[in-house]
Amino acid sequence: MSDSSDSPVYVVLGAGPGLGLGVARRFAQEGYVAVLAGRTADDAAPWAATLEAEGHRAEGVGVDLNDPADIASVVGAIGERHGRIDVLHFNPSAWREKSLLELTVAELLEDVAFGAGGLLPAVQAAQPHMSAGARVLVTGSAAADTPSPSAPTLGVQKAAVRNLVTSLDKTLAPEGVRAVAVQINGVLAKEGPFTPPPIAEAMWAAVSRPDDAWSPHVSYNG
């Protein structure tokens, strides 16, 4: 059953109590219904409740980001329920501390499938519910350019997802839908410019640009 309304809908995959919640809050402040997808619905429920307590419309859902079919099912159901998806935010990444001299091909591909490949079924399921002006937002990282040898798969994930965003933006642009990766060139912190609120502000600024000022990559340097 559709719960469509005039309110825009923001969906974040790979939500959490830090950056995911912070960005969801920024969009909720603009009147978006915030849908936070965590590992389980029970995980996501408190984050949605936090936003609801602040006077926003929000809901928490569960999604298995290792399962493309589940990603498609969850995103598709959100679109059907609300009648629209205006911002699809892909936020997950896998952190695996392992030397390149020990890392296996299977482990590398598993992490890339999680941190980059999952964007594909998400966009494919969201696209029928996105109209002109909708946006795909991806959390990028400086690891794409300066990978750490102690966690080498993260850099590959972020380089791969940034590449996908470039192609997605060109693919979706004729429909008036644009894609952007916001590359965070710093380490998330509890104080200062790399806390969730200023990063969330940068993400809001990135997606709210008009098409004639669009670029698929934005750097946040604090």
UniProtKB/TrEMBL annotation:
It comes from Nocardioides humilatus. Gene3D superfamilies: NAD(P)-binding Rossmann-like Domain. Belongs to the short-chain dehydrogenases/reductases (SDR) family. PANTHER family: 5-KETO-D-GLUCONATE 5-REDUCTASE, ALCOHOL DEHYDROGENASE, PUTATIVE (AFU_ORTHOLOGUE AFUA_3G03445)-RELATED. It comes from the Bacteria. One of its GO terms (molecular function) is oxidoreductase activity. Keywords: Oxidoreductase. InterPro entries: NAD(P)-bd_dom_sf, SDR_fam. CDD domains: SDR_c. This is SDR family oxidoreductase.
